[in-house]
Amino acid sequence: VQLQASGGGLVQAGGSLRLSCAASGNLFSIGGMGWYRQIPGKERELVAHITGGGETNYADSVKGRVTISRDNAKNTVYLQMNSLKTEDTAVYFCNAGIYTTRGNWARRYAFDYWGQGTQVTVSS
To answer: With the CA atoms of 97, 98, 101 and 105 taken in that order, what torsion angle do they form, in degrees rounded to the nearest 10?
Structure first.
């Protein structure tokens, strides 16, 4: 199973970006999915999370500016970021709890997978 993130880039403050992360490989189902970000020298922090049922939660620093969504048919999670600030500059990682077999799904035993990270740079 792999998570492939895309959509990062350089944008001016106030601009928007949409990140995507697609899961592929031998999987049965996907549970919660999320986006995290990391600045050099700091710990990775949660940006947004969405459960398998569609419930969402956001870091206080991005509430009102960021929307997480998912397309279960495409095994993909998205992060729409608007009104970007320079402090949003970071490497963004996607994360997913993946049930690799029906048996694991029945036991609610999900494996934790991470994407490779995509750089978001917001200039002033």
So the answer is: 40
pLDDT value, residue 6: 95
Distance set, CA 72 to CA 8, 56, 62, 104 (Å): 22, 15, 24, 18
Closest C-alpha to 36, from 101, 99, 118, 108:
118
The closest alpha carbon to 24, from 77, 103, 93, 79, belongs to: 77
The single residue listed with the structure tokens 């999987």 is 27
Q: Check: CB of residue 12 under 8 Å from CB of residue 122.
A: yes
Tokens of 69: 């969504």
Which structure tokens are listed for 22? 């697609």
pLDDT of 51: 96
Pairing state of beta strands 118-123 and 2-6?
unpaired
At residue 43, the pLDDT reads 96
- Adjacent-strand bridge partners of 4: 22
CA 103 to chain centre: 26
